Target: Phage tail protein
Amino acid sequence: MAIETFTWPTERGSSPEITYRVRTSKFGGGYKQEVGDGPNNKEDSYPVTYSGPQAKVLEIMEFLDRHAGAKAFLWTTPLGQLGLFSCKNPVPTPVGGGVFKLTATFERAFHP
Model:
């Protein structure tokens, strides 16, 4: 089964959250040793926003519903890096006049 790609343009501007999982062992004399926690220790998530007509927001919601927060999809980050992401929290909000604002957070995934 092919991995779908999120292709809708999103408003960029919100800062991503990027952290590295690190294991630390502390020893006497203030010495400590740190190592990355696993081969995929970078955790990053990106807040995204899409504003548009109800029909387009429904298209995006159908895409996100198909993935149900668990199945990953391809998305290109603001830095232009293609990767696998999931979305567990889409929020469509009516703005008025048939326009909706969809906010969500895309979290890095390591499996389809």
